[in-house]
Write a structure and sequence with these properties.
By secondary structure, this protein is of the alpha/beta class.
Length: 355
């Protein structure tokens, strides 16, 4: 009975993610996960690989860990049958039989996948920079200071290079006009953020439990593995961000997030606006670590001054969308600036922040 209860929990996670993939524009992954669910019910290879994982924290994204582990094998050219269905590997997403090809790949690589499923999800989604940019603009405009950006859970630090990307809003261009990473048509509705022509960033650094070097073949493959294979716009943008990373160095330290934030905020820094930021990170932290991060930032905020202001800019799930929330000190003002898709597109900017 215990084993069946465990697989029931796994099945619920898979069903939830299948629905999420369908709503987020990945019919390929939705179809594959429907096949995984059917295989779980039939006690097939998925039941063997995922048995005992029903107690994994929901936020650890078990289904995405499985999909990412398999996608890596495809990208490395070791699953040609499945690659025929993956646009990321030159395949056709509408080719029939993808669920069967996926299950066959699980069978062929079961030992490797049993280990790889334990790898944490590493999604350095560049599209989130388009969401964050409006928040950085708010902080820069309200303080009149250059930005000191500190990102928790930065992965490869691609979003720390946000000012080296190009943003096109209603005919205006912000950021680096020559950047290979370009955002256009990201915003829906009547309102837009007021982005500056250029961002001034005095310091940028991040932390991650397992930082990735996006300038290496291994690092880029890891990031691509967790990008959905039928969403080529995301894949192309990720590759372009890798090229930006080659010329814009960023330090991402291997560290525990709460410890790193506490050290970074130990003393106020004058002459810059310090911004602690993260995107879709809190679900991977324990409840105690989430509380510690909040307490650390709140404490640092009480020491903030006009010469050394502090902001907390985060993009985290809020129902079917992500929410961009900004808290600023001195004053402890708190507001939702926008809602957005979990990968960035589309963005709905809040009316109070109309350009």
């Amino acid at each position: 009975m215990a084993a069946r209860d465990d697989l029931h929990e796994v099945l619920e996670v898979v069903r939830f993610q299948a629905d999420g993939c369908a709503r987020a524009g990945s019919p390929l992954y939705a179809t594959i996960l429907d096949g995984v669910a059917a295989d779980l019910r039939a006690d097939g290879i998925c039941a063997q690989l995922l048995s005992g994982r029903g107690s994994d924290p929901f936020g650890s994204a078990l289904a995405l860990r499985l999909l990412g582990a398999v996608h890596r094998i495809v990208l490395e050219g070791r699953a040609p049958q499945l690659a025929a269905h993956y646009p990321s590997a030159g395949g056709d997403a509408e080719r029939p039989g993808v669920a069967e090809a996926f299950l066959a790949t699980l069978e062929a690589h079961r030992e490797e996948l049993a280990d790889r499923i334990d790898d944490g999800v590493q999604t350095n989604e560049v599209g989130r920079s388009a969401v964050l940019a409006g928040g950085y603009a708010e902080v820069a405009r309200s303080t009149g200071l250059p930005l000191r950006v500190l990102e928790m859970g930065a992965s490869a630090g691609l979003n720390l290079r946000f000012d080296h990307y190009r943003y096109e809003i209603d005919g205006r261009v912000s950021g680096d006009p020559d950047s290979p990473v370009r955002f256009a048509g990201m915003w829906q509705g009547p309102h837009r953020p007021d982005l500056p022509e250029r961002f001034e960033v005095a310091e940028r650094r991040g932390c991650d439990r397992n930082p990735i070097d996006a300038t290496s073949d291994e690092g880029l493959t890891t990031l691509l593995a967790y990008t959905w294979p039928d969403q080529m716009d995301r894949i192309d943008r990720l590759r372009a961000a890798g090229r930006v990373a080659e010329r814009v160095p960023v330090v991402v330290e291997r560290a525990n997030g709460p410890d790193w934030v506490a050290a970074a905020l130990a003393s106020p820094v004058e002459g810059v606006a310090t911004v602690v930021t993260h995107t879709i990170v809190l679900q991977y932290l324990s409840a105690s670590d989430r509380q510690r991060v909040r307490a650390t930032i709140d404490t640092a905020g009480r020491s903030a001054t006009a010469a050394a202001p502090l902001a907390w800019l985060r993009m985290e799930p809020a129902g079917d969308r992500a929410e961009l929330r900004l808290t600023r000190w001195p004053g402890a003002s708190d507001e939702v600036l926008a809602t957005a898709g979990f990968h960035g597109r589309p963005i709905w900017w809040e009316p109070a922040h109309e350009a």
